[in-house]
Amino acid sequence: MSTTIISFSHKVDGALTDCTSVYLSDPTGTYGVKRTDNDATVVADQTAMTKSATGQYTYEITDPASDLTYNYYVEWTYGGLTHYAEFTKAGTVGTGTYQEFSLKTMAVAVLDYLDASSTDTDIAAGGVSYDLYTRAKAWVNMAMQEFADYGPWYFLKKSFQEVTLSEDAYTADLPVDVHRLLTDAAYEDYSVLFQPTSLQSIQQLRAVDGTTSGTPRVVGLSWNSSTSRHQLVVWPPADEEKTLIVAYTRKLPQLVEATDEPAIPSEYHRIIRLGALAIAEEEGERNWNGGARERYSREVEQAWRRAAQSHMTKRHMRGHRTFHKEYRAMSDRHDVTPVYPT
Questions:
Q1: Rg for the chain (alpha carbons), in Å?
Q2: Cα–Cα nearest to 76, from 68, 87, 61
Q3: Which candidate, 317, 196, 318, places its Cα nearest to that of 246?
Q4: Separation of first and last alpha carbons in the chain
Q5: Hey, what long-range contacts does 47-51 have (CB within 8 A, 24 or more apart)?
Q6: Which of 146, 271, 311, 319 sees the fewest Cβ atoms within 10 Å?
Q7: 317 or 285: which carries more pLDDT confidence?
Q8: For position 176, what pLDDT does the model report?
């Protein structure tokens, strides 16, 4: 099932600033987000948005259908005053009718492929297939992440997200849903594209002069275990607060419940199921090569090419010079920056 992410940024004197509270709520207290075609409520009134970074808030909608347009109000409180702003947001564009697969559906398909019993009784705790069913669910999640890693995919991409680098700071947390960076960080006005470097090189620079601030020009990536986020590490430390811009692909949430579905367009669900079969083969559950890996590799390659051709055409570059760099990144299925563990 597809999702749509809505976002809200709050600035004071040009600087991103946290609010006391941020909710999806219209002034009449009737809805948080509604469809424009039939006025049906999609998100309830007074639903809190999630803080993704300083002054930045998001909320992920599970689309009840494709090709929708949403109307919503953001209610935020700052300095003791409450404000409202109205927005519209286009939902996920439909690509046709495809079968959707849940975690249970795909895990059961793995059991069937392995000629194991897949009745509800046998896959329940204590059942003869329970252990294998548990492993099959893990393989489905592994296949889903492998599929996401093959990208970048247009439906996982988030462009021009702001990241605040505080004065005298040399680190800045990235949004919580970052999986991979697609392009190098840049300043808000795109005056400078950072030069990627290793953390070891930055540590050597800090050892020579760890106090002098200036305009950061080199950047590395690390993992902030205290906040459980990726973070940018820059040099030199910022001589004033800076707003940086990044483009990235978002994480795919793990499938846990039996009815959970991958948060990607349904046309790709069957490829994830095929990937789970390939992993099952490679885990030694079959003594013969059924060809699932070969079929998976062929299917995912073809799917990526179709997605790239239909969504990454040159017309997307018009109107903004920074799209030229982004287009090159999106036209290549390999990232321009390393992948760091989550």
A1: 23
A2: 87
A3: 196
A4: 24
A5: 47/23, 48/21, 48/22, 48/23, 48/24, 49/8, 49/22, 49/23, 49/24, 49/74, 50/176, 51/18, 51/22
A6: 319
A7: 285
A8: 84
| Residue pair 185/177 in contact by the 8 Å Cβ criterion | no
Q: Which residues contact 306 (CB under 8 A, 6 or more apart)?
A: none
pLDDT above 50 (res 324): no
Q: Which residues contact 330 (CB under 8 A, 6 or more apart)?
A: 152, 154, 157, 182, 308, 312
What is this structure's pTM? 0.59
Q: CA-CA distance, 275 to 105, in Å (whole number)? A: 14
How confident is the model at residue 257, as a pLDDT? 94
Q: Which of 33-42, 90-99, 278-287 has the lowest mean pLDDT?
A: 90-99
C-alpha to C-alpha distance for 160 and 247, rounded to whole angstroms: 5
What is the distance between the alpha carbons of residues 149 and 323, in angstroms, rounded to a whole number?
22
> Using CA atoms, how far apart are residues 12 and 26, in angstroms rounded to an integer?
23
Query: Tokens 């509604």 sit at which residue?
Result: 34
DSSP state of 200: H
Which of 193-197, 276-280, 289-293 bottoms out in mean pLDDT, i.e. has the lowest?
289-293
Average pLDDT, the chain: 81
Of residues 338, 43, 72, 22, the one with CA closest to residue 182: 338
